[in-house]
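Order emerges. One example.
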Amino acid sequence: MPPVSSCDCPHLDCVGEITKEELIQKSHGQCQDCKVGGPNLWACLENGCAYVGCGESHADHSTVHSQVRILRNIGNTCYMNAALQALSNCPPLTQFFLECGGLVRTDKKPALCKSYQKLVSDLWHKNRPSYVVPTNLFQGIKAINPMFRGYSQQDSQEFLRCLMDQLHEELKELVAEPYDQSNSITVDDSPMEDNHSQSDDFQSCESCGSSERADNEVQGGNVLMDNTNEAEMLIPEQDEIQANREWQKEKNMINDLYRSGVDSFPGIQMSNTTRPQSPVPMEGHIPKMSSSPPKAASGWPSLNPNKRQKKYRSVISDVFDGTIVSSVQCLTCDRVSVTLENFQDISLPIPGKEDLAKLHSSTHQTSLVKAGSCGEAYAPQGWIAFVMEYIKRIYLLCSSLVTLQDCLAAFFARDELKGDNMYSCEKCKKLRNGVKFCKVQSLPEILCIHLKRFRHELMFSTKISTHVSFPLEGLDLQPFLAKDSSTQTTNYDLLSVICHHGTASSGHYIAYCRNDLNNLWYEFDDQSVTEVSESCVQNAEAYVLFYKKSNEDAVKERRRVSGLFNIMEPSLLQFYISRQWLNKFKTFAEPGPISNDDFLCSHGGVPPNKATFIDDLVVMLPQNVWDHLYSRYGGGPAVNHLYVCHTCQIEIEKLEKRRKSELDMFVRLNKAFQEEESPVVIYCISMQWFRDWEGFVKGKDNDPPGPIDNSKIAVNKNGYLTLKQGADSGQISEETWNFLHSIYGGGPLLTVRPNISHQESESSQSEEKIEVETRSV
C-alpha cells in the first residue's frame, strides 16, 4: 500500500470508480480507524476499496483483502499458531467445521470443538477480521493439559496431539452397524474399542529401528489379519504347511470368539486396553489378544464385553486415521504374531549416513529374495553385485542428502530382535531372536508425518538439524502398503509444513501452507504472512508435514456431479443425504460408501435428540444426482421422508425413568448411610466404575456401565480379598451395595469392617465394662 501523494503513480488509475484526485484529497484527511490526520496516510489499492489509514499495527488493513489470515502471538505461542495454521489448511477438516456446523455439538468441557469452529470461521469466512486472537482455544487447551499452562515454549506436535484427541472426544459418535450386514462379525470387521477416548494423546507410530524403543509400550487391542505375505515369506518351506495349519486354526478360533462372545472361551480374555503409542506386536501368539485385569476370584463376571467392543468415530478419525500391520516372527519356532493398529501420525526417524548405507543395502537384498524364504535373504551375491553395492555405500557415506522416502524406508525396514532386545515368544516360553516388520493396511485421507528431530536423554536434549528433502507432489506410499490392502489411492500432495528454528531448548515455530483457494504457498510467522515460492518451501527444515491424498478421478467425479445439479431434471422424488458425507465427497479422494447414519437411528427414523436441528444435518438431492451417487458409491440407505422415530422416543423415556429411579434410590440409601453413626459393615466400590455409573444416571453417558469391577482395588492376602492400599475406591452401605449389585452384578465383594470384627469389638467392650463394674464394687 503506497503512501498517497501528488506524484504520478500508475497504480492509482486502477482502484475502481474512485479517481486519483479524490484519493489525493483523502490523503489530507484522517485515518478511518484512529482519526489521525495526514500527511503520512496510506491508500488501499484493492479494486472497489476506498480505505485510507495510518498503517498502525492495531489498525492493520494490509491483509483484509488477502486470502489468508494471521494469528496473533499471545505469549510465546508460536508453537500453537504454526500448528493451527497448518491444520486449518487441511480442506477436509476445515470444510467440516464450515459446512457441518450442526454436528459440532458437545456437552463436554471445555467445548474445544466450539472454540476451534469459531477460529476456523474467523480464518476463512468472507467477512473475517484481518487477524485472529485464539484466546478461547488456548484457554481450553490449558484446561485440558497443564503442560501448556504458563508462557514457556512448548512442542508443536504435542499441541497437535492434545488438540486433535480432545476434538475426537467431544465429537465422537457411536458407529451404527450397517443395514445390510448380519449379526455375525468377521475378524477383519470386528469392532474395536474406542482407543481415542482412553489416551491423553492420539497415537504416534514410533520407528521400528529407532533408539527410542525403550519408550514404546507393548500393549493394545489386536485384530488378526487374514493373510500376511511378510510372515509367509519368513516361514521356511519345509514348515510352511504345518505353519499354515496352525495359522488357520488360530484364525478360526478368533472368528469363533467374536461370533460366540468372550464368555465361551474362558482361556481367552479381552482387556480394557489403552491406545498404544507404537505399532509393536503383542508378545505371544495371536489368540491371546491382551492380558485381562487381574482377578482375585473367579466367581464374578468380568466387564461387559459388548461395552468394550463398541466403536466410535469422529471427523478426526475419518480424516486422519490409518492402520498399520505389525508382525513379529520367532526365528526358533517360526511363530508369527500380527497386530493391526490405528495411527493418526507417523513418527519417522532421520537416518544418518551409516544408516542410509545399511538401509539401501538391506533394500537391495530384500528386493532380490522377496519371493524366497528367510534363509535366502542372506544368500551370497555375485562379485559384480558386491562391487556395485560397495560403491553405492561409499557414495551414500559421502552424501548428506536424506529424503522423506529414506525416513519412511527406515521406519518400515525389518528389524532384528536380538541381544538386549530379544523377543519373548509365548510358544517357546523364552526370549528368542526374532524379526519385526510392519506395513500399511489402510492409508488416511490426510497423512500427518512427524520427523523425530529431538532426542531427549536423561540429562540433556539435542536436535537433529539434518535437512530432509520432501516432495510437494506425488509422495507415493505404494512400496509400504500391505499386499492385501484395499487402499487404491497411494499418492499424496503436500498441504502444509511446520518448521522449527533453533535448538532443543529454545527456538521458534513457523508454518508453510498451500492455500486451497489460489494454490499459492504462504509463510505464517505469527502476525506476519508472506507469499513464498515452492523452492522456499522445499528448502525448509520440516518438523511436521501434512499430506493429502491426490486422485484425479475424484476431481472429475465432482465436476460430473456438479453438471448433474445444473441439469435440474424434473423428478417425482427428492432424496435426503448426509451433509457430512457430501462434505467428504467434496474434499476426500476416497469418500467411501454413502452413510446417512449421522442423522438416522437404527430403526430408520430421525433420533429425537436430533430432530430440532435435522435441517443442519441433511441436504436434499434431485433424483438424478442421487441415482448417480448411489450407483457410484453405494451405501445409504435411501431416505425420502424424515420422521421422528417413535421407538427411540419410547426407549429414551424408559431410559430416563431408569436413571431417575436409580439416582433417587442411591441418594436415599446414601443419606441413611451418612446418618448411621456406627455401621455394622462398610462395602468398598471402585470409583472408576462408580464414575461411569454416575455419568449414566446424570445423563452424561447414554450407555449404562457394565458389571461392577472391583478387581483393580482388590488384593489377595493369604487367600482373602482385601482393599488395596491407596486404591481409588469409595465406601457405601450394605444396602447400597445390594441395590447396585442386583442391577449390574459383578464384584468381587470387599469390606473394610466385617461383621466378625464388629462383634469381637462389642464383646471386648462388654468384658471391659464388666471388669470396671467389678472393680468399682
Q: What stands out?
A: The longest helix spans residues 646-675. The chain has 21 helices and 35 strands. The first strand starts at residue 42 and ends at 43.
